[in-house]
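For reproducibility, we list the full input for the adenosine-5'-triphosphate complex.
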Amino acid sequence: MIRAENLTKRYGDTTVVQDLSFTVQPGAVTGFLGPNGAGKSTTLRMILGLDAPTRGHATVDGRPYARHGAPLTRVGALLEARSVHPGRSARHHLTALALTHGIPRSRVDRVLAVTGLTHVADKRVKGFSLGMGQRLGIAAALLGDPATVVLDEPVNGLDPEGVLWIRTLLKSLAAEGRTVLVSSHLMSEMALTAEHLIVIGKGRLLADTTVDALVRASGGASVKVVTPEADRLRNLLPGAGITLEAPDTLLVTGPDAPEIGRTAAAHGLPLHELTPRAASLEQAFMALTHDSVEYQGALA
Ligand SMILES: Nc1ncnc2c1ncn2[C@@H]1O[C@H](COP(=O)(O)OP(=O)(O)OP(=O)(O)O)[C@@H](O)[C@H]1O
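The corresponding predicted structure, in tokenized form, follows.
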């Protein structure tokens, strides 16, 4: 479990992370979301002991990261701009890391397999594509078989296949009971990957919630109903918000799909379609972070 308590980071007069408190639980993927410059990387660096907080503190499994005896076997991390010697092979890089951290060599083959790098394990890293480099970074993060995994923008620059692979990997790591914290500025990606979301803007906590609750709180969930009896159904749903999209199509907010279906059935009204529509999560995210976006387009 990761716990941040009143984490605050100032650079000179600028406060980039302010009084941030949250808990990341094991067994689920937690998305750490915020617009560019929100303070995500700075927060992750404080959790990993790479930046000292100006105030507050962060712990992993009850202790600051630096106080864990063998941190790589506790916490695996992928940060942006990880450097690997370009002349080394992936296997060489991982083996060196294993040997200097007391991790059995057998883990090298294991993580090469998990990240799909076995067939290029002996090639020099300098020939690696962005996606392969990203996989190598993840292999290094998983080398110590850590119970906690922290990844900063792991899907940046990946092709759709790579994105899908990371999504599946993160879910399986969480299903094994690990604590998984992954940052992104892409709501659409997190909606498909994470169950829990921590959203920050300008260094402050904006939401600590589930994906489902965020959609509900955005008030945008609605049900599309197609029926030749649109007028009659409309009169049977007093208090609902109803927009007529077409003569036979209603967009209903308030009652959920089962309730609308029951009402229609009770009055013998045929339904040709009954489709719950979640508000676009992207819209919910934009609404939440609108005031926190550092650089807004002139036309925004
Ligand atoms: N060493 C530093 N000195 C001064 N300011 C810094 C330093 N590191 C980060 N910042 C500032 O802190 C703010 C937050 O940066 P951070 O990289 O944590 O944001 P982020 O949410 O990870 O953004 P992105 O999605 O663009 O990576 C930015 O305005 C950045 O310019």
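The two ends are 38 Å apart (CA to CA). The chain has a mean pLDDT of 89. Both points were considered when choosing residues for closer inspection.
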